[in-house]
Design brief:
Structural class: mainly beta
Distance between the termini: 26 Å
Strand order of the largest sheet: 1-3-5
Oligomer: single chain
Shape: globular
Number of helices: 0
Order of helices and strands: EEEEE
Number of domains: 1
Strand content: over 45%
Number of strands: 5
């Protein structure tokens, strides 16, 4: 699964793919959340990446 977005707000959530997960974003807010790719995970965040609590 591929995701291309300017801003991703994944607060208290889960982005999951049974295959590979590729996420390209300018800003990622991943507070209290999970990114999961069963085969692989590729993450590109150009500016801000928030991972808290």
């Amino acid at each position: 699964m591929g995701v291309n977005m300017i801003y991703v707000a994944n607060k208290n959530g889960r982005l999951e793919s049974a295959d590979a997960l590729t996420l390209h974003t300018r800003t990622l807010d991943n507070q209290a959340s999970t990114l999961f790719g069963l085969q692989a995970l590729t993450l590109t965040a150009q500016q801000d990446y928030t991972r808290c609590c």
